[in-house]
Design a protein that fits this description.
The chain has about 240 residues and is an alpha/beta fold. It has a domain of about 160 residues: Rossmann fold (3-Layer(aba) Sandwich). The chain is built from 10 helices and 7 strands. The strands form 2 sheets. A 5-stranded parallel beta sheet has the order 1-7-6-2-3, with helices on both faces. It has a two-stranded antiparallel sheet with strand order 4-5. Strand 6, helix 10 and strand 7 form a beta-alpha-beta unit.
Length: about 240
């Protein structure tokens, strides 16, 4: 009965491409033309931070120069699905600011694929990057939480929505660049329920990694609360 009802709904309300609006034969999210415009981050990339290489001469796990210097970092692995360009930007901003919450389902599929190396290392919980409560009230939803919710459905990994909080209201990161981004979010996050984080292998979920400042502050708070490891997974990454 549910299958029949689903078919009837598709006849009158067929799935559409989340970018151009074209009618789709299946609920794939994007039509073939729009999908082919996407720039996915694929191997070769740094095994630790996920930064893509232009070319590689080895099939082994590669490490970039920055990671080879062994700079202290709160992250275990960083992964992103897409290059942040005009195509991915439109899809992310539509989710973030234009109430296109249905985009989260499609974007989460790409997160799931991009997280292949992370899933192999094993994970206990997904944690979305939180919004300050004032911004959450204004926006009405947290796009990172929506992504985490859809990703949880695909992976079976539970989401912790409440332990990590943003207790300090900051200006939007888009207003800053470089070191100013670091200063803007420094000390802005904390863990309200450390008992839920202690000993856990955590994956931080967000829409975009630009400099990584926000993700780093979140990871530091999680590690301080006793997280065993912290990975990051974002839809897109500024390269």
């Amino acid at each position: 009965m549910n299958g029949l009802l689903s078919q009837i709904i598709k006849i009158f309300l067929p799935p559409r491409c989340i970018k151009c609006g074209a009618v789709l034969s299946d609920d794939d999210g994007l039509c073939p033309q729009c999908f082919n415009e996407l720039n996915f981050i694929t191997a070769p990339y740094c095994y630790k931070c996920g930064h893509p290489f232009e070319e590689a001469v080895s099939s082994k796990k590669l490490i970039c120069a920055n990671c080879a210097k062994k700079h202290k970092t709160p992250f275990r692995l960083n992964r992103s699905a897409l290059y942040y360009d005009d195509i991915s930007k439109d899809l992310i901003l539509a989710l973030k600011f234009m109430d296109k919450t249905e985009n989260a389902k499609t974007l989460a599929k790409w997160l799931c694929m991009a997280g292949y190396d992370i899933w192999k290392e094993e994970v206990d919980i997904l944690v979305p990057v939180p919004l300050h409560y004032k911004r959450l009230i204004k926006r009405r939803y947290n796009q990172s939480a929506l992504l985490a919710k859809e990703l949880s459905k695909l992976t079976g990994i539970k989401v912790d929505y409440t332990s990590l909080i943003k207790h300090k209201a900051t200006k939007p990161q888009v207003q800053f660049s470089g070191h100013e981004r670091v200063k803007n979010v420094r000390g802005a996050f904390s863990v309200k329920h450390p008992e839920n984080i202690k000993g856990q292998r955590v994956v931080l979920i967000d829409d975009v990694m630009t400099t990584g400042s926000t993700l780093k502050e979140c990871a530091l708070a999680l590690k301080k609360a006793g997280a065993k490891s912290v990975d990051t997974l974002t839809v897109a990454r500024v390269i």
